[in-house]
Amino acid sequence: MISYVKGQLTTIDEGSVIIETNGIGYEILCANPFHFQDALNNEVKIHTYHYIREDNQSLYGFKKKEDKQLFAQLLNVSGIGPKGALAILGTVSVPEFVSAIEQEDDKYLTKFPGVGKKTARQMILDLKGKLVVWLPDEENEDTLFYKDDLPSNEKRQRVDDAIEALKALGYTDKEVKFVRTELEKANNGNVDDYVRQGLQLLMKT
């Protein structure tokens, strides 16, 4: 089992990144490859899930260990494959997903790509009570954006990177136009913050 890959991030594509280590380039499938934009051409560590089947071996990559762990849990749900699990993780943060499971919010869960009411109920049945460790402590919950000083051109670049990530997920120019306006008004954040906020806005429209 390949637990993580650490090396130089050489390539970012719409659905994957390539990490070169010891002369070997590992293609790693990611929900939001552009989350790693800031690390391009630098050393990066990506938590990986080694998916093995008779006719397929793939590496799925995640920035955070809890994302990888949730991915593994989703694969245990009947009707959820790696593509479906990755699509879910590309749309929502772990605490938000866990909250929906614990509240049995099947209406919210059916907003994810490829998830119908039957699959949503199956996720609740299989996962409720098993993921509560990832629910944030209300008193210590991190805010979405940090409020430091950031040059306007750097913020604009981060918003641009987030918009490209959203387009890579299949959203149209028309859909992300509103999101860009809202993100430009938001407090300073990194690319991950803006992608997550953009997805939240798109799910409300």
UniProtKB/TrEMBL annotation:
It holds the Pfam family RuvA_C. The gene is ruvA. It comes from the Bacteria. The keyword Transferase does not apply. Residues 72-91, 107-126 form the Helix-hairpin-helix DNA-binding motif class domain. It is found in: Cytoplasm. GO terms for biological process: DNA recombination; DNA repair. SUPFAM superfamilies: DNA helicase RuvA subunit, C-terminal domain, Nucleic acid-binding proteins, RuvA domain 2-like. This is Holliday junction branch migration complex subunit RuvA. Keywords: Cytoplasm, DNA damage, DNA recombination, DNA repair, DNA-binding. It comes from Halobacillus litoralis. InterPro entries: DNA_helicase_Holl-junc_RuvA_I, Hlx-hairpin-Hlx_DNA-bd_motif, NA-bd_OB-fold, RuvA, RuvA_2-like, RuvA_C, RuvA_C_sf. Belongs to the RuvA family. Its main location: cytoplasm. Residues 154-205 are annotated as: Domain III. GO terms for molecular function: ATP binding; four-way junction DNA binding; four-way junction helicase activity. The RuvA-RuvB-RuvC complex processes Holliday junction (HJ) DNA during genetic recombination and DNA repair, while the RuvA-RuvB complex plays an important role in the rescue of blocked DNA replication forks via replication fork reversal (RFR). RuvA specifically binds to HJ cruciform DNA, conferring on it an open structure. The RuvB hexamer acts as an ATP-dependent pump, pulling dsDNA into and through the RuvAB complex. HJ branch migration allows RuvC to scan DNA until it finds its consensus sequence, where it cleaves and resolves the cruciform DNA. Homotetramer. Forms an RuvA(8)-RuvB(12)-Holliday junction (HJ) complex. HJ DNA is sandwiched between 2 RuvA tetramers; dsDNA enters through RuvA and exits via RuvB. An RuvB hexamer assembles on each DNA strand where it exits the tetramer. Each RuvB hexamer is contacted by two RuvA subunits (via domain III) on 2 adjacent RuvB subunits; this complex drives branch migration. In the full resolvosome a probable DNA-RuvA(4)-RuvB(12)-RuvC(2) complex forms which resolves the HJ. The keyword Iron does not apply. GO terms for cellular component: cytoplasm; Holliday junction helicase complex; Holliday junction resolvase complex. Has three domains with a flexible linker between the domains II and III and assumes an 'L' shape. Domain III is highly mobile and contacts RuvB.
